[in-house]
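During the first year of the project, the team set up a workflow for recording each protein of interest as an amino acid sequence followed immediately by a discrete structure-token representation. This format lets reviewers and collaborators read both layers of information side by side without switching files. As required by the reporting guidelines, we include two representative entries from the current panel. The first entry is reproduced here exactly as it appears in our internal archive.
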Amino acid sequence: MASVLVNGSPTAEFQFFRGLKQGDPLAPYLFILVMESLHLSFSRTVDVGIFKGIQIGKDFTLSHLFYSDDDVFIGEWSDENLSRILHVLHCFSLAYGLKISVKKSHLLRVGVSNDATVAVVTNLGCAIMKAPFKYLGVMVGGNMSRIDAWDETLSNLRSRLSKWKSKTLSIGGRLTLLKSVLGSSPIYAMSLYKVPKSVLSSMEAIRRNFFHVFPQKP
């Protein structure tokens, strides 16, 4: 039971139920704590050899990546590995009451025939993911040395630094918006991939055209 202080006086007591309402400041923190338990559970399955990840070097095995509510499981292609992933997720769902949506999940194959992938996807009830794909705002599996791979980044810069915005802002406003856009849109991708020179020239042209002060005609 709990009550709420209103102007220093407690209200009538009410009963707590499971879960938090959307927007509660405690919700993200509690969600991270619960997902940490999933990370520990899956790490133990890898340590005891129940699930086989991808061996990178001699001392490192990559099996899963967690970012908020986006989970990526990486491992050898086998029926046993796939069934064990579902088993771990099912146990996690029973323990914490969080339902795993398999329909929203995707399966990505590397070096596996399309027929085998279709058979597994049909059995699991998930969808097929093809490379390249976007994960956390960055393209994965594509050739980022190609100029056309940066078309979306350039398009976002042009839309956020359009000419009509430059005409309605002062020089200080343009500079503030320019720093904000250039510091958030392309920097994340540029920290992971080497940008072609022509793409850098296009970004510089967009920046120059936006910041340029157009003379007023009499």
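The second entry, processed by the same pipeline in the following quarter, appears below.
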Amino acid sequence: MLRRRFIALLAGVFTAVLAGSVGGVRAAASDDIQVMADTADGYASVSALGINGTTGGAAGPTVTVTTSAQLAQYAGANTPYTILISGRIQVSGMVRVVANKSILGVGATAEITGGGLVLGSTTRPGNNVIIRNIAFRNASDDSVSVHNGAHHVWIDHNDFYPAYDGSVDVKHKSTFVTVSWNRFHGTDKSMLLGHSDTHTADIGYLKVTYHHNLFDGSTQRHPRVRFGDPVHVYNNYYRGVGSYGVASTENAGVLVEANYFEDTAFPCHSASGYAESAPGRLVQRGNAFVRSGACETGGTVGEPSAYYSYRADSAASVPSLVTAGAGVGKI
């Protein structure tokens, strides 16, 4: 975190010297460099399916949008774009995002309210997409929906407030996704992975990494998994979770590693299934349980390290790291 901020600070100083006092409709270039300082990790970093990691709209121009019409125009364009969101944008329904886009909030005030982002369609894929540094509020459906076979998606450093349905849903043969350093504020159906018990077409897909997210008074689905294998849930902070933390069902394989569960009565469901769903497989290691129940486990799960390199922080360090680093305005 410190190294990242130091690099961003140097970049901002350098850009400010070049930019001088020149004004314009675009955001200051220092903000652009700051939000682009990192690269995707976890499954989103894997070279597969014709994509060498997740780069978003880096190959295209950068534009700043301040209205829903502008956001829809550039998010739905057939060419790469880095799209900067400045301030609050009120949208209606779901804005469609197609391949090769970076949608990045400027500073600490970027917000999408009233609707959400849906990646791809049956005819135009939502592959190679980055969504960072945006607050999502009052979505009329999902805040972010990754579906229709979208792959290589990085959802990072956002704030999610309650939506009508899910906050971040991944389904319909989507895969190679990383959800990292986000903050979920009292959300209900926080993160669904896998459309339904009968949608067996998801088998072999749904490879998702969830790390360093803060679930702050949220209720359920952190995540709720069907079929995905191996799914990696590590270094997340579960604080005052109302119903349950992680559910592995329908023969999914989930590794729950070095998370911190605090005041969470049911950290994990797996061997007994959940609701109408059949049991899944779940392995837990190195987690901390504070005023919380036990993590239900069962079966074996493949190692995510077969796909990508990572270093898990100790569970004890998770509350301080994640509280300080998750959400908007922290990159």
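For the second entry, the following points were noted during internal review. Residues 1-37 have pLDDT under 50 and may be disordered. The radius of gyration is 19 Å. Both points are flagged for discussion at the upcoming steering committee meeting.
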